[in-house]
Amino acid sequence: MHALDVLGDPVRRRILELLSEGEVSAGAIAAVIRDEFGISQPAVSQQLRVLREQGFAVVRPQGQRRLYAVDPNGPREAREWLSTFDGFWMPKLAALDTELARGRRQRRLAVQAEATDAAVPDAEPADASHDDHDPDAGDRPTGPDLKET
Predict the structure, then answer these.
(1) Which of 45, 83, 101, 143 is the Cys-Cys partner for 132 at CB 3.0 to 4.6 Å?
(2) How many Å is the maximal CA-CA distance in the chain?
(3) Within a domain: residue 145?
(4) Per-residue model confidence (pLDDT) at position 102
(5) What is the pLDDT of residues 105-148, one digit of tens each?
(6) Do 42 and 18 sit in the same domain of this protein?
(7) Contact partners, residue 61, CB within 8 Å, separation at least 6
(8) How far is residue 147 from each of residues 96, 140, 141, 142, 144, measured CA to CA in Å?
(9) What's the total number of domains in the chain?
(10) By three-state DSSP, how is residue 55 classified?
C-alpha cells in the first residue's frame, strides 16, 4: 500500500492526528473514532493495524493496554514522495508569499500615512504675518491705536 493510500482514509488521518499529540491508548483512540465516525472498536483496531503495518504508527504494550504513537518513518516517506512535486508548486507559493508581503507593506504604509496626517496640526494661514498681534504680548492685542498699560 502506498503512503498516500494510507493517508487517503479519513479515519486513519484522524487517528494520526490523535497520535501526533503523543502516545494514546487503543481504548482512547477507539472511543474518539467511535464518537466521530460511528465505527466499532474492531474496525478501529483494523485501522490501527494498517497504520502499524505501513510504518505510520508504533505500539508499545503497557500491562493490558496498548499505547500507540506516530512512527516518523511513515510520514517521512510520504513527504519524500510528495517532495518530487516541489518544483511545480514551490515557485507559485514563493510568488504568493511575495504578493502577500507586498499587500501587508502597502497596508502598513497607508496606516502610517494616516497617523502622520492626523498628528500634523493645520499650518498657519499664509497671511498670518500681517495681523496686529504681538506674539510676545500674550493675548493682549497691540497696534498704533492702542496704548500699552
Answers:
(1) 143
(2) 108
(3) no
(4) 92
(5) 999 999 998 888 877 666 555 555 555 555 555 555 555 555 55
(6) yes
(7) 67
(8) 74, 11, 10, 8, 8
(9) 2
(10) coil
Residue 52 lies in a domain: yes
Global confidence as pTM: 0.56
Q: Are 42 and 4 in contact (CB under 8 A)?
A: no
Cell of 31: 472511543
The answer to the question of residue 39 being in a domain is yes
b/e string for 84-104 if b means 16 or more Cβ within 10 A?
A: eeeeeeeeeeeeeeeeeeeee
Q: Are residues 29 and 49 in the same domain?
A: yes
Domain that includes residue 98, residue range: 85-117
Domain contains 56: yes
**Amino acid, res. 50:** V
Distance CA 86, CA 72 (A): 21
Q: Are residues 89 and 65 in the same domain?
A: no
Nearest-angstrom CA–CA distance, 96 and 81? 24
- Identify the CA nearest to 13 among candidates 55, 47, 58: 47
Q: Is the pLDDT assigned to residue 36 strictly greater than 80?
A: yes
Residues 99, 72 within the same domain: no
